[in-house]
């Protein structure tokens, strides 16, 4: 017995133009199943999501004939809800923002960037860190030093020198010259021209190293006797715990 076209699995129809598809579309997004309309997916014509369903098929199908998108399916429900009702999500903001960027849904991107979470990260914290010379490179240097010292050890430490002003940078260099340690193993952050203080930068360092999956803590570095300056003025010890 033949099957009517409206009951054929969606994946059987992808050989033709998407204009011939049923207006009802079944999706498999990273293992999560969704059913929506073609018009919902194409609501914002300039978006990458709309392009996926415009003209010739650009997506593979799964074994059941559903269009497959290789992205986290958990957060697609928030994307879909926005397309359906213009409702901006209030949960999982950071993750939904990443998906909005991937699908290039410009109105949603702009509205999410106005949320406190994204605004604080992009406008406040990221703009501050952009004024700290070589910040990202120094984070990677810290990790390399810590990993090099982790052989047969539970913990390894990295000494960090943090200076906010040019004057402090000069004093820090004098202090480094009097330290009984390998100066190449000291990672220097700063100076910078922005409002946040040294404690704010230390929090940022910990936050960004932890975001890479490491367990880390820090404390003021206590120098040996005879040190010319108070060690906590500039130097901090970051402790990596491996197991």
From TrEMBL:
InterPro entries: BTB/POZ_dom (IPR000210), KCTD7/14_C (IPR057890), SKP1/BTB/POZ_sf (IPR011333), T1-type_BTB (IPR003131)
Protein name stated in the entry: KCD14 protein
Species of provenance: Pluvianellus socialis
SMART domains assigned: BTB
Domain of life: Eukaryota
GO terms for biological process, alphabetical: protein homooligomerization
Source species taxonomy: Eukaryota, Metazoa, Chordata, Craniata, Vertebrata
Ranges where the BTB domain occurs: 23-120
